[in-house]
Amino acid sequence: MNILRRVVSACILATAVASLAVVPSTAERPSSAADEAAVAALDIQYQAAVSRNDDAAMDRLLADDFVLVTGKGKIFTKADLLSEARSGRIVYERQDDSAQKVRVWSDTAVITALLWAKGKEEGKPFEYKLWFSDTYVRTPSGWRYVFAQSSIPLPKPE
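The structure corresponding to this sequence follows.
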C-alpha cells in the first residue's frame, strides 16, 4: 500500500512539473491589456490598408485561410479581398471604426466595432455603417486576422 501511494504521488508530481514546463508564466506572456492594445492597433492598420487598397499590408495581416461572412451571407476569402484591393474598383473616402471593443481570451481576440464606409465603387457613390466582429489568433509569428463577420448595413438616420 505504501508503494502504491509513492507511485501515485510521483505521478501527480511529474504531471504537475510537466504542466509548468508547458504553460508560460505570466511574466513571459503579454498582459491582457497589452494584447488588447496590440490587436486594436492591428485592426486599425487593417482598416487603413483597406481604405488605401494596400494589398501588401492586407496580405501581411490576413491569415491565409481568412474568411469574411457578410450580413447578406456572402463569403469572401483572403484571395477575394486582395483581388478586390488590386482592382481599384473601390475608392474610399473613409473607412473608419468607432465604438471599438477588444476582448482577449488567451490566444484569441475578438473586436467589435461600428464601421463607417464612404466612397465610390466603379464611380458610383456609396455610404453605409455596419457592425462587425473580427477574430484574431495568436500564432508563433504574432497575431493574425482569421475571421470576420459583418451586419447588414444599418438604416440611415432620418
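Residues 4-27 have pLDDT under 50 and may be disordered.
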